[in-house]
Amino acid sequence: xxxxxxFLMTTLILSSCGxxxxxxxxxxxxxxxxxxxxxxxxxxxxxxxxLSTCELKETLELKSNGQVILTKYSGTNCVDxxxxxxxxxxxxxxxxxxxxxxxxxxxxxxxxxxxxxxxVTGIENYIKTVYFKRIx
Length: 136
Hints:
By secondary structure, the chain is an alpha+beta fold. 18% of the residues lie in helices and 47% in strands.
């Protein structure tokens, strides 16, 4: 009887820990490196954006506590780093990620690859996709 009670208590404790937000967001948690950007126009054409060496060094770190750290580089050899920090919000049910100062973005994660899609409106209207590779 004691073994049965111990088994039930262990099962309940383990199952109650399985639904935490950290587990739900684990696919986006980590440090990511920007590798590419594209623009998709309404006529279906896709244009790859030419990124500078400094832009390709940019990192985005999404932490399990809802904090985000964005590091951008500039200068002759991309050694001057500028870091921005803030809070992000992730709605896993519809894959929407909101970063500081940005509108909601659709996030797609596949293992070590992640991309954001969002609509840009203005002189040109297009869907911008930013591609990242997990670095840790």
